[in-house]
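REQUEST FORM: STRUCTURE PREDICTION
Request ID: SP-0412
Submitted by: Lab K.M.
Chain count: 1
Length (residues): 260
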Amino acid sequence: MDTTEESIHLCFDRTLPLALEETARRIAVQENPTNEVDPNLDPNDPKLTPTERIALIAQKRWRPGKRLRIRFLDGSATMRQKVAHYAREWTRYANITFDFDDSEYSEIRISFYADPGSWSALGTDALVQQYFPLHQPTMNFGWLRDDTDDAEYSRVTIHEFGHALGAIHEHQNPQGGIQWNEEAVYRYFSGPPNNWPRERTYRNVIAKYSADILIGTQFDPDSIMLYGFPAALTRNGVGTKSNNKLSRRDIEFIKAAYPS
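STATUS: Completed
RESULT:
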């Protein structure tokens, strides 16, 4: 199996520890009351798998009309300018504003050097200071540099800001129907550029969210939240394509999540 030419960088979930889930839930509901989940669902129910527990707390949308303050902690002027440019694509459709300033109390704080990976706090999780202290990033772009091409800046920036608005990975949508060759997936992501252990690969690639507790479940092959996976990683030889801009369904979803 040769997937060398299609090697892809994946971001990974910054999932809160279970001990902070209740704090995160209270903060999310305080920020946006529509984040309240079904009170009959118990996140501590032992019958729920870890993946289902993560999905249960996935309603972390900001209040519609919110002005999100965004602070760069490092990075060159070019890197900052490109991220700010592509991030604003979401604000064309969502009732939300991105204010790039240097406020100490910015909700979103961006680094390019925190680690080699790419990641973001999921929505209002960025407000949980026990996990994301004010002097530390809530988002990281570990492989974007001055000479990175614009298509990659678009793909990675819009994707991570999707997480920052509360969107999950599309390949973990239970309606996606991706038939993983699991051992091939583990081998692929154990090597460069990701170098992930099996547990991280399982949690960020193979694991599915529980359909009955997601805001929307229809799979979108064109979503910016979907990565391009080689066909060799599946049992039926059907991969996915890489997307670097918002799809029609992405736009519909974000308009509904952040209505005017």
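NOTES: Residues 4-257 form a domain with the Collagenase (Catalytic Domain) fold (CATH 3.40.390.10).
Reviewed by: T.R.
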